[in-house]
Amino acid sequence: MHAANTRFHPSIGPLPQNHGSATKLPIWRDKVSWLRILFVESRAMPNSLAYLMLLIWPLVSIYLFRRMPLERAIIWCILGGYLILPPVAEFDLPLIPDMDKHSIPAVTAFVLCVFMMKKPVPLWPSSRGAKALVLLFVLGAIPTVLSNTDPLQADVIENSYPIQIIMTHLPGLTWRDLGSVLINQVIVLLPFFLARQYLATEQGMRALLVALVIASLIYSIPAMIELRLSPQMNIWVYGFFQHDFGQMVRGSGYRPIVFLQHALWLAFLAATSAMACACLTRYAPEKEKTRYAVALLYLMILLVLFKSLASQVYVLFYVPLILLAPLRFQVTVALGLAIVGVVYPMMRNLGLIPVDAIMAVATEISADRAQSLGYRLGNEEILMERAHQKPWFGWGGWGRNLIRDVETGRILTIPDGRWIIVFGTFGWVGYVAEMGLLALPIYLLWRRTGGTVQPTPYVSVIALIVAATMMDMLLNATIIPFTWLCVGAMLGYVERLKIDAPHKSKLFSEGTLLAADPAKSKPRTLF
Question: For labelling alongside 35, which of 18, 71, 369, 391 has CA 20 to 30 A away?
Answer without folding.
Answer: 369
